[in-house]
Design brief:
Oligomer: single chain
Shape: globular
Order of helices and strands: HHHH
Number of strands: 0
Number of helices: 4
Helix content: 40-55%
Largest sheet: none
Strand content: under 5%
Radius of gyration: 16 Å
Structural class: mainly alpha
Length: about 100
């Protein structure tokens, strides 16, 4: 948290992957942001990888889902460039 006090151009400032992961987790603890809807259908209750069923739903992504997608994209960019990999791992573990 103390690294948030630095200027965004400072190398000690958190990476975008970490910032998006923090926003995703923080959205779980606020009433101002609508939570991700709970799955209520009985058609696939034991499906572990429910992502493929998400494509058939028409609802928009929640704030947390958007932030997780942005964090993963930022993490992939960091892995591709090889920059700040430890912080990228931190952002990945928060998700």
């Amino acid at each position: 948290m103390s690294s948030l006090d630095f200027h965004p151009s400072d190398p000690r400032f958190p990476t975008p992957a970490v910032l998006h992961a923090m926003c995703a987790v923080g959205s779980l603890y606020t009433a101002e942001i609508a939570p991700t809807p709970i799955h209520t259908s009985n058609t696939f209750p034991y499906e572990i990888f429910a992502g493929r069923w998400r494509r058939t739903q028409t609802r928009p992504d929640s704030f947390a889902e958007q932030q997780i997608k942005l964090a993963k994209m930022a993490l992939e960019d960091m892995i591709d460039t090889g920059a700040r990999l430890v912080e990228g791992l931190q952002g990945d573990k928060v998700n």
